Amino acid sequence: MSEQPEGRRVLAALHLLDRQILDSDSMLAGKVDDLEFERPSDGDPYVTTILSGLGALGPRVGGRLGRWFSAVHRRLHPDPEPGPARISFGVVKRVNNHVELTLHREELENTEFEIWARDHVIAHIPGAGHAPE
Amino acid sequence: MKKVLGVTLGVLTAVGGFLDIGDIVTASVTGARFGMSLAWAVVLGVIGIVIFAEMAGRVATVSHRPVFDLVRERIGARLGLANLLASYFINFLTLAAEVAGVALALQLASDVNYLLWVPLVAFLVWIVIWRVKFETMERVFGLAGLALVVMAVALWQLHPDWSSLWHSASHPEVTSGEGAPTYFYYGIALFGATLAPYEVFFFSSGAVEERWQRSDLVLNRSNVYLGFPLGGVLTLSLMAISAVVFAPMNITVEHLSQAALPTVVSVGKVGLALILIGFFAATFSAALETALSSGYTISQYFGWQWGKVVRPKEAARFHVIVILSLIGAALLALTAIDPVKLTEYTVVLAAAALPLTYFPILVVANDPDFMGDKVNSRLSNGLATVYLGILIVVSVATIPLMIATKGGA
Amino acid sequence: MTEPGPPSATSRALLVLVAAFAAALAACVQPVGPARTFDSYERKASDTASTALSAVQTGRLGAQTAKHDDTFAPYLAVLVSEAEDEASSAQTTFDSVQPPNDESDNLRDDLDPLLTRAVDALSQARIAARRADFDEVAEQEPKLAQSARELDRFIEAHR
After folding, report:
1. How far apart are CA C149 and CA C137, in angstroms?
2. Which one of 2.60.40, 2.60.120, 3.40.1000, 1.20.120 gives the CATH number of domain C36-157?
3. CA atoms of A21 and B302, how far apart (whole Å)
4. Contacts of C156 in chain B (CB under 8 A)
5. CA-nearest residue of chain A to B130?
6. CA–CA separation, B192 vs B207, rounded Å?
7. Tell me: the pLDDT tens digits for A2-61?
8. Is the Cβ–Cβ distance between B308 and B75 less than 8 Å?
9. Which residues of C, range 89-128, sit inside 8 Å of B by Cβ?
10. Given an 8 Å threshold on Cβ–Cβ distance, is A122 in contact with B319?
């Protein structure tokens, strides 16, 4: 799963951070809110994980608003002390204008808010299953 | 032939959909108070929105991403967040003003107090968003808004002194009895009403939802280059009839009922019916657009799935935001805050926040990574940069003028 | 890549914006202040007369459209009742201001009857409009015209 062999040298801040993530169906699946690197003793550091969602954005944005994001993330997540949602870089298919994944949205970790919103609000409203025709 | 029809329909929809409560209120108020001497502010606003809507549409067509989506990528998470908060706040105020505007239009037709209409209006707006196809929504309300052409007819029927109207418009000067700060304050209000930020969020998100391709760029351009200026003509017509009827009688406009009055005086019952339909269509479509924009801005910052094209279950957060925004806006309107005053303050604040919306558009439209060969030409860049300068000047001047004039008193 | 946020520049900028907006709003929402000199009282009187004039003229236009049966009753009712509210609240506000001296008392004695007549004429028009009695509304037109003339004279005299 190492990035080194086929990895591209990209300016992580410019070409990865804050980019839109698309899943395998080309549905919107959040943004690259933060990144995790690994620093081998030999060679250059490489990106191992994408962090996404409120849990990742909170610490990055900082201040009172950032703390609130993190609080909402903890609230909506089934685990009591969840870390930020992680997307292993191994499932990244391509990086151009967006980051395309090989996984489906549902299989990602950063969807707890969407699931909450869907199950607690939207699913109760008639017609939620149909797009306006 | 079909293409011509499509283009015509697009232009007509753009014209009918151009006005909203901000344009209606500011045009009437300034026409009565300053005659045509603030016409330049409308012209300046129309040029501005043409420049930026064309860019935003081009960005959406080429990159298949709406502008706000790209804001965070270009200016970073923290600045993007500040931008989002300011944009969302102003959008929210606009939504409340538009919802109140629809309720006022209904009051004018029924003599039932507008506050009683507010909850129904908020619900109707939501239902249309929930169930009606994007294109249908735009088309129906855009074309219904064409009823406002009656204002141009009203101007004609009044047989005004055209040369004096033209003179007042082309030789702007601070009206006697008014101070320069007040004059420019209202100029900013008109400018902000014409260049409303939500138009850009909606326009570019719509382009993505409707999956505009490069071949649609022609359509995009004709809508923008023809539709918006014609919409501006309607705004100026409203200003002119208010000037012609109200200024000599020392009437100042404080209520929406007065905004319709010159048309009634000039064209009678038919005029009244048409202008009420027009007011309703204009404010309702603007309410739809601002409600959707509340969802667009937040969803696009966080990267959430948004839009009416997907099933609501697949864009749950987007729809929750839209619903909460509508409820909040209705609650604000229900505080019985004066809707005309709310509208005036909102357009002024929108003017102050314009650089936030338009600077990222300029940046993105210039980026060859996104735009390929459709990147800004030197001419459009030059124009847009000049405009950005204007927007910054306006932005800096707004709050001091607001304080100095006590909110345009 | 994560720096724990300081009270970030963003938050500070937002705070400044909110403060500016609040200051602007505060400047706009002005409770009616007292008038301490004749000049400032005269100005208030003049402003009140202008507001009443605008309301009366609006009512007049409404009455004219009623005379030609060129309007719809619900619209006319809203138009006239809003004009009436405008004039009546202007009068109430003006009456609540303490006249600072005798000269001001005279001013008030001059203006009050004008305001009362204006509000009365508009009330009559409103009642008739609510009853969809266009003829009765049209009959208020001369009274409204008279009120307009009086108020205009007052404003001119105290320019």
Report:
1. 19
2. 1.20.120
3. 10
4. none
5. A132
6. 23
7. 444 445 555 555 678 888 999 888 889 899 998 888 888 877 777 888 888 888 898 888
8. no
9. none
10. yes
Structure tokens at B34: 């300053």
- Domains for chain A: give ranges and CATH numbers: 12-124 (2.30.30.240)
Out of B85, B107, B250, whose CB is closest to C14? B85
Q: Do A63 and C4 touch (CB under 8 A)?
A: no
Inspect the interface and report whether the beta carbons of C6 and A34 lie closer than 8 Å: no
- Please state the domain extents for chain B: 2-404
Please tell me the distance in Å from A41's CA to the nearest CA on chain B: 31
Checking ipTM against 0.95, whether it exceeds it is no
- pLDDT block averages, 10 residues each, chain B of length 409: 76 86 96 95 94 86 82 85 92 96 97 97 95 86 92 96 92 85 94 89 84 77 89 96 96 96 96 96 94 94 89 89 96 96 94 87 82 81 90 92 85
CA–CA separation, B12 vs B244, rounded Å? 27
3-class DSSP state of A85: strand
Q: What is the pLDDT of residues C13-22, one digit of tens each?
A: 666 666 666 6
pTM of the predicted protein model: 0.92
**C50/B250 CB distance under 8 A:** yes
Note the CATH number of domain B2-404. 1.20.1740.10
Element housing A30 (H / E) = strand A28-31
The b/e string for B326-339 (b: 16+ C-beta within 10 A; e otherwise) is: beebbebbbeeeeb
